[in-house]
Amino acid sequence: MSPLVFLARHGKLILIAGLVAGIALPGVAATLRPWIPEMVALLLFLTAFRIGPSDTIETLDAVARTTRAVLILQLVLPLGFLGLLYLLGQPLSPLSLAVALMLSAPSVTGSANFSILLGHDPAPALRLLILGTALLPLTCIPIFWLMPQFGALGAVLEAAGRLLAVILAAAVLGFALRHWGFRSLGDRGRRATDGLTVIALAVIVVGLMSAVRPTFDRDPALLAFWMAAAFAANFGMQIATFLVLRARGRRAAVPTSIVAGNRNFALFFVALPPESTDALLVFLGCYQVPMYLTPTLLRRLYDTA
């Protein structure tokens, strides 16, 4: 058995090891953080290569379904959440701001990889990632209009544009290599690629958790609060979405549910005022824990699909 196939077989343990390293090695986390964009691009390239262009695009009907899903996830849900806060007369606390940001954001780049680790089709998750990022400049406009605390709309649109450019470039390169170099990848080739993506995911999470260890050293109770909030937001969205889609017999229930709970809200940070980001950076670090534990803790639920 090759080392990459071995890593793919034990992918869930490798992800957990990445979480542990992110907490235990704050110096390494701080060193890796500036390299996150490059690592994300590599992860997207490997994902696109593994899935291939034909399985990703599938049919125009799949694109239409994906567009509807994006509008529900990134527009209807955050507007509903803000409307509920208004009806209850609740102010916009740091926690509610974090949840609103999460609900407004597109999929994280690793959603397709989590689908693979759970034994489900990753193509719907990749479509949600690409279309969700492409539509973000439209879906976030009403959210920013209702929440001026989000900061400057132009800064977010610029960040979304940069992210979309990275996603498209990495996807095109991955599709091109698959189409012209490895059209028939085979099971062993897919498993080896999965091993590479597991390594990329484990390294990326170390950089994303750079704010967790300092918060633990300073205020463990505060970290426990944000960790509980991250689990409730992430797993709550995944479980609720899955139960609804499974009841409706939707074929893409698992990848869509994974995307529903795992969002790339970090791209909004470029527009937020500095005084608003400290607590959100802690939430971002804590958010990686339920995200990377999804293939382990939610497997039994998703196996019922």
Descriptive overview:
Keywords: Membrane, Transmembrane, Transmembrane helix. InterPro entries: Na+/solute_symporter_sf (IPR038770). The chain crosses the membrane at residues 39-57, 69-89, 95-116, 128-147, 159-180, 192-212, 224-245. It is a single chain. This protein has a single domain (3-302), classed as Na+/H+ antiporter like fold (Up-down Bundle). 80% of the residues lie in helices and 0% in strands. It contains 16 helices and no strands. It has helices at 3-9, 11-24, 26-32, 36-51, 53-57, 60-88, 94-104, 111-117, 123-146, 153-181, 186-208, 212-218, 220-247, 253-261, 274-297, 299-302. Helix 3 (26-32) packs across helix 11 and helix 8 (111-117) crosses helix 14 (253-261). The two termini are 31 Å apart.
For this structure, the CATH topology is Na+/H+ antiporter like fold
Report the span from N to C terminus: 31 Å
Unreliable spans are none
Biggest sheet, in brief? none
Helices and strands, in order, run as HHHHHHHHHHHHHHHH
Structural class: mainly alpha
Brief account:
The chain is mainly α and 305 residues long. The protein contains 16 helices and no strands.
What features would you highlight for this structure?
Bile acid:Na+ symporter, BASS family, 80% helix, membrane, transmembrane, 305 residues, globular, Na+/H+ antiporter like fold
Topology summary:
Blueprint: H1 3-9, H2 11-24, H3 26-32, H4 36-51, H5 53-57, H6 60-88, H7 94-104, H8 111-117, H9 123-146, H10 153-181, H11 186-208, H12 212-218, H13 220-247, H14 253-261, H15 274-297, H16 299-302
